[in-house]
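S2.1 Query sequence (ABC transporter permease)
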Amino acid sequence: MAAYVSGRILSLVLTTLAASVVVFLLMQLLPGDPAAVMLGVNAQPETLAALRRQMGLDEPLLTRYLSWIGGFAVGDFGTSYTYSVPIAELLGPRVMVSLPLALMAMAISVGVALPVGVYAAANRGRAGDTASMGIAQVAVAVPNFWLGLLLILLFALELRWFPASGFAGWENGLWPGIRSLILPALALGLPLAAILARVTRSAVIEALGEDFVRTARAKGLSRRATLWLHATPNALIPVITIIGLQFSFLMAGTIIIENVFNLPGVGRLVFQSIAQRDLITVQSLVTLLAASVIVVNFLVDLAYGWLDPRLSTGGAR
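Output structure tokens follow.
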């Protein structure tokens, strides 16, 4: 098990470094000069050169990368070109919006998908299976930003149960903060739940056809107990794989949803930084989002080893 974990940690570090290189190079290929954007088209060449030196843009590419990634490794993400403050200071309050939003969306996705998928598998070919998978198929095709607008129209403007936009702030209490995130979390989580429900159904149906399920039934175990105690746990590996993959889609969807609901989160900061040509902020935030996805995939790999010990011992190979 120790060798399995060590190998995954090494893969985590190398993948994160590779992602940082790709993001850094892509930022350098973008047209335009951040210093020129900040000073405007009428800036004097001397002033422009001085600002480029101050921002470190006149240094060699490798030097700039090593300086940036060295600081990134210890939590120093650089200083924002636009706001002239450390990016970590900008990031702190916004993480307290984006992280709860992502966790709520993932909880909605898993909480809806697993029961629906298992129910559909247990009633394969019946009306309940057809109806639930039909709804899931429609939900897969619905863009999360469009679903967000529909939720605003119904629950915010018509029923007035939740705010249409903005974030109440955690300093005003736990419920006001959660209430501000319920509609965005639903807009993010429900389309993901539709995908996960279909995967869960397929995995459970496959598990129900295995020999160990027939053996459990032959020993007198009830159909319900066999479904939940044997088939469902053994169907979790492909389900967990999809949950890990969905996290990356969740991060991308957060950028859109936070703009739809006007939430002061990391996604909105990325959008604003792109619009303002704040390349160092975009570079650090995108790398941080990529690293979070890599860490989630690392945790998924560890979950594989826990669910199926053969993977961690090499038995499956």
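The chain has 14 helices and no strands. Residues 148 and 238 are 28 Å apart (CA to CA).
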